[in-house]
């Protein structure tokens, strides 16, 4: 079965993992990195080392770039922009939605197909079909190259707005850090009474499935702009978080995180929304 040629520009930990995944799936892979020796393990595995960016770009119709930032992308690709014309550039560099949209405009002005991406895993997760790779800016390009990009992980199409992959990436990382913070606080709380982290986490993992179910319902409320408190009102949750704070204080556990939640809840109550669902607190973030 013929495999599409791919070029990977940038061989940091993530870029090297991308190239290794393409190689492992049988794609002829050309690689380039500013520090040439970083390509050595990939070349030993069958990759072709390009002498410069121009040679790397010319080698493939699909060019994947994963470098430090968007400024580095332009520094590398501006000199070879004519060679990129007619090719597809997949930018898996982390940046802002504004930078992604600017890059999409730059690509369009030069006749370059452009997909902006967000990698929702760490390097060891590259190549796992359970790992999400977010793509935005060219649904037709993603459809054309889906089989190749699926080698890296599950390709999620976010539509024609090139900024959405970066926007989702930032928001999803925010969820991750909030979950980690809540889990660490709770694990410290339970650990103060001798509960092993692995034992508490086994139960916490199941609870997160229920939390996900609540989120789906709250998303419907947010889109409708209506927040019926049929499940649990903010008033009730103010009382419940008081118990969490008391338990933490009794055990010497830092309470800054739950106090932030309490502050947000009290703000909603003071605004007259104590009988609404927790989803109403989105108003505090929108301000």
Summarize the structure.
The protein is an alpha/beta fold and 287 residues long. It has helices at 13-24, 40-44, 53-58, 70-77, 81-84, 97-109, 139-149, 164-191, 197-224, 234-251, 256-270, 282-286, and strands at 6-9, 29-32, 48-49, 62-65, 88-91, 113-120, 132-136, 154-157.
How would a textbook summarize the main sheet? 8 strands, mixed
Query: What amount of the residues lies in strands?
Result: 5-15%
Largest beta sheet: strand ordering: 3-2-1-4-5-6-7-8
Mean pLDDT, rounded to whole units? 97
- Structural shape: elongated
Element-by-element helix/strand order: EHEHEHEHHEHEEHEHHHHH
Number of helices: 12
Query: Which structural class fits the helix and strand makeup?
Result: alpha/beta
Radius of gyration: 23 Å
> Care to count the β-strands?
8
Q: End-to-end distance, in Å? A: 54 Å
Weakly predicted, low-confidence segments: none
Helical content band:
40-55%
């Amino acid at each position: 079965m013929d495999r599409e040629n791919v070029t990977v520009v940038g061989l940091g930990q993530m870029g090297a993992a991308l190239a290794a995944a393409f190689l492992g799936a049988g794609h002829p892979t050309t690689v380039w990195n500013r520090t040439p020796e970083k390509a050595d393990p990939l070349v030993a595995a069958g990759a072709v080392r390009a002498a410069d960016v121009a040679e790397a770009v010319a080698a493939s119709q699909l060019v994947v770039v994963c470098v430090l930032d968007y400024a580095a992308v332009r520094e590398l690709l501006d000199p070879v922009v004519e060679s990129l014309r007619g090719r597809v550039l997949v930018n898996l560099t982390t940046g802002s939605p504004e930078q992604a949209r600017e890059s999409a405009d730059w690509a369009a002005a030069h006749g370059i197909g452009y997909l902006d991406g967000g990698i929702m895993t760490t390097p060891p997760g590259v190549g796992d079909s359970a790992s999400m790779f977010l793509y935005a800016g060219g649904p037709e390009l993603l459809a054309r190259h889906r089989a190749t990009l699926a080698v890296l992980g599950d390709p999620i199409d976010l539509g024609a707005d090139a900024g959405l992959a970066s926007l989702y990436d930032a928001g999803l990382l925010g969820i991750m850090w909030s979950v980690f913070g809540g889990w660490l606080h709770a694990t410290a709380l339970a650990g103060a009474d001798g509960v092993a982290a692995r034992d508490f986490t086994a139960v916490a993992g199941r609870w997160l499935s229920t939390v996900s179910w609540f989120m789906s319902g709250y998303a419907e409320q947010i889109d409708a702009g209506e927040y019926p408190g049929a499940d649990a009102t903010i008033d009730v949750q103010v009382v419940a978080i008081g118990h969490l704070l008391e338990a933490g204080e009794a055990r010497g556990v830092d309470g800054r995180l739950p106090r932030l939640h309490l502050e947000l809840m009290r703000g909603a109550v003071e605004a007259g929304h104590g009988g609404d669902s927790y989803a109403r607190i989105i108003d505090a973030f929108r301000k």
